[in-house]
């Protein structure tokens, strides 16, 4: 049975308390301490991947750790996601994946074997090799972390959205939830060549300057990921809820808290908007212009004739990885 449609203010209040958003506040603590570490480059921390400039372009480094409950409940898919979400992070930066390494702790049991098999299966589908890692099969709980190396010729960053630009959401809706979590899976049953082709859109977008900023939709969901991008760039936005691509049978409360296997938030100039949307449409990926980026450091959501503030970028801190924090840093 479908739940009654919530008033907009109640919907946004519920989504704001989603654990996927609230857990992002932990980045504040890590950021404050690690900011004291040895600086290696001119690119700020807080993007989907770290950026290291080289003579021929950019190297990208990213890592993901997985909730023990997820690994315990769906070990094969956790292993698959070990590659998929890292590859998505590299793509969000305008890059292509090169290789991954993993760390797995667990027992000598079927669950650990399923985690490893999921990684192997994803490695073949995405054509990204697993080149090393750390293994401990004398643990009490199955745990997984995966790191990735990527390369890019031009960078898409969370720090380069500008007031006056347009906000775009692109999501592959050709999937279904993989229960019991709000993970929208449009990957494991898709043709491998289609998955690889879809991911190749992001480097193409970067290299052809069709967007200046991008972020992979994370466990923070669509709105939480928007907040992270806006916070990093030091801007606000106004969006239209009804324009966000959504499966018809899924309720907004669930969809706004969902983690899609292919989902990106992008910032682009008005003149580039038609070409950007066409690029996704040509591959049957649902993409839409959902709103505008503004100097006003509030994130507003409109629906049904009402407008509510979801997040005050100027006064509420989510990750703390903001334009203010990185004022003296150089962004590509």
TrEMBL record:
Record bears the keyword Magnesium: no
Pfam families named among the record's database cross-references: AIRS, AIRS_C
A single GO molecular function term of this UniProt record: thiamine-phosphate kinase activity
Ranges where the PurM-like N-terminal domain occurs: 46-151
Xref: InterPro entries: AIR_synthase-rel_sll0787, PurM-like_C_dom, PurM-like_C_sf, PurM-like_N, PurM-like_N_sf, ThiL-like, UCP036540_AIR
GO biological process, one term: thiamine biosynthetic process
Keyword Magnesium: no
Domain of life the protein comes from: Bacteria
Keywords, sorted A to Z: Thiamine biosynthesis
Residue ranges constituting the PurM-like C-terminal domain according to the UniProt record: 203-302
Name assigned to this protein: Sll0787 family AIR synthase-like protein
């Amino acid at each position: 049975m479908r739940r009654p449609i919530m008033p907009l203010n109640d919907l946004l209040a519920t989504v704001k308390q989603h654990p996927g958003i609230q857990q992002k506040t932990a980045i504040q603590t890590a950021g404050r301490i690690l900011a004291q570490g040895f600086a290696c480059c001119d690119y700020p921390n807080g993007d989907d991947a770290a950026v290291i400039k080289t003579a021929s372009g950019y190297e990208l480094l990213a890592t993901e750790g997985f909730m023990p409950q997820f690994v315990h409940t769906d070990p094969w898919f956790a292993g698959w996601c070990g590659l998929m979400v890292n590859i998505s992070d590299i793509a969000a930066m305008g890059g292509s994946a090169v290789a991954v390494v993993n760390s797995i702790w667990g027992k000598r049991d079927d669950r650990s074997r399923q985690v490893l098999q999921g990684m192997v299966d994803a490695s073949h589908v995405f054509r990204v090799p697993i080149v090393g890692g750390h293994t401990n099969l004398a643990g009490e709980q199955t745990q997984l972390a995966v790191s990735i190396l990527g390369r890019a010729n031009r960078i898409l960053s969370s720090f380069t959205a500008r007031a006056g630009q347009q906000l775009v959401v692109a999501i592959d809706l050709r999937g279904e939830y993989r229960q019991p979590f709000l993970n929208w899976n449009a990957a494991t049953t898709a043709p491998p060549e289609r998955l690889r082709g879809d991911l190749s859109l992001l480097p193409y977008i970067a290299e052809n300057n069709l967007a200046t900023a991008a972020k992979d939709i994370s466990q923070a969901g669509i709105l939480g990921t928007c907040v992270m991008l806006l916070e990093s760039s030091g801007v606000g936005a106004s969006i239209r809820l009804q324009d966000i691509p959504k499966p018809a049978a899924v309720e907004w409360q669930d969809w706004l808290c969902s983690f899609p296997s292919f989902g990106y938030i992008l910032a682009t100039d008005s003149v580039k908007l038609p070409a950007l949307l066409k690029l996704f449409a040509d591959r049957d990926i649902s993409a839409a212009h959902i709103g505008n980026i503004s100097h006003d450091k509030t994130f507003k959501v409109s629906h049904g004739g009402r407008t509510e503030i979801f997040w005050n970028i100027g006064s509420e801190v989510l990750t703390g990885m903001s334009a203010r924090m990185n004022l003296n840093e150089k962004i590509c």
